[in-house]
Specification:
The purine nucleoside phosphorylases catalyze the phosphorolytic breakdown of the N-glycosidic bond in the beta-(deoxy)ribonucleoside molecules, with the formation of the corresponding free purine bases and pentose-1-phosphate. The chain has 266 residues and is α/β, with parallel strands linked by helices. It has helices at 5-12, 79-82, 89-97, 154-167, 187-196, 206-214, 239-260, and strands at residues 19-23, 35-41, 59-65, 68-74, 102-111, 121-129, 172-178, 200-202, 218-228. Helix 4 (154-167) crosses helix 7 (239-260). The structure holds hypoxanthine.
């Protein structure tokens, strides 16, 4: 399905967002920080996919964060929902079609580091795709051979790190490893991920980063840590815990974003 960009442009009216922001599980509270918010349910935008995951909204929200016009995608579609690694492609193509050049992705993730407890925020500096899935399989053009050496934009990362420094907010930096889900990892998989050099694990973001780079968008991404990886504590993992814990780091993430967005335009 293709999104009619002209129809979407019409729905936005006078708004001309500069940055698109995808919100992860339980991070809908970032929307509460918007000035002049206007909500357009996905159902009103032909071609936008509906998320089936509780804790994910289903709307585009326009507004200003830190004085910058943003288009928030509140709710994403995951690979594990229908086995489609390119589930977010129509949305990202629409973002590109609107002329938005920057994309900030957020997610809830499990920590692989004892010094990064639940409630922490981690700036993603690189990722590992060991899932076997890829959003560009079947893409016919040579553009599918996307360079991933600098997938996470240096200037956008610097803006987030600078904001953290100014606010005195801790901001971890690390490697995010994508697992397909929807089950959580096993303790053995978590030990493997640690051995591979990952700092956090999650079920999203990586296919979106690949698609965004394919489309020429500049990307930054951050994880809100909701739990330690499986087997690191005695506790069993659950989606309820993700939803309960995400708002704790989510408030910190919202402050970081509001301070970083004005600096990202470089
Ligand atoms: N694993 C995968 N995805 C997650 C986790 C996790 O531990 N926590 C939140 N999302």
């Amino acid at each position: 399905m293709i999104v009619d960009v002209a129809a979407l442009r019409f729905l936005l009216g006078e708004r001309h967002p500069k940055v698109a922001l995808v919100l992860g599980s339980g991070l809908g509270l970032v929307v509460d920080e918007l000035e002049d918010a206007r909500r357009i349910p996905y159902a009103e935008i032909e071609g936008f996919p509906e998320s089936t995951v509780s804790g994910h909204g289903g709307a585009v929200v326009l507004g200003r964060l830190g004085g910058v016009e943003v288009l928030i995608l509140s709710g994403r579609v995951h690979y594990y929902e229908a086995g489609k690694a390119d589930a977010m492609r129509p949305v990202l193509e629409a973002i590109q079609g609107l002329g938005i050049e920057r994309l900030v992705l957020t997610n809830a993730a499990g920590s692989l580091r004892e010094d990064m407890p639940p409630g922490s925020v981690m700036l993603i500096e690189d990722h590992i795709n060991f899932s076997g899935a890829h959003p560009l399989i079947g893409e016919p053009s040579d553009a599918r051979f996307v360079g991933m050496t600098e997938a996470y934009d240096g200037a956008m990362r610097a803006a987030l790190l600078g904001a953290a420094e100014r606010l005195g907010e801790p901001l971890h930096r690390g490697v995010y490893m994508w697992f397909s889900g929807p089950s959580f990892e096993t303790p053995a998989e978590i030990r493997m991920a640690r051995g591979f050099g990952a700092d956090a694990v999650g079920m999203s973001t990586v296919p979106e980063v690949i698609l965004a780079r394919f489309l020429g968008l500049r990307v930054a991404a951050a994880s809100v840590i909701t739990n330690y990886g499986a087997g690191m504590t005695g506790a069993e993992l659950s989606h309820q815990e993700t939803k309960d814990m995400a708002p704790k780091g989510g408030a910190r993430l919202a402050r970081l974003l509001a301070a970083a967005l004005p600096e990202m335009d470089r």
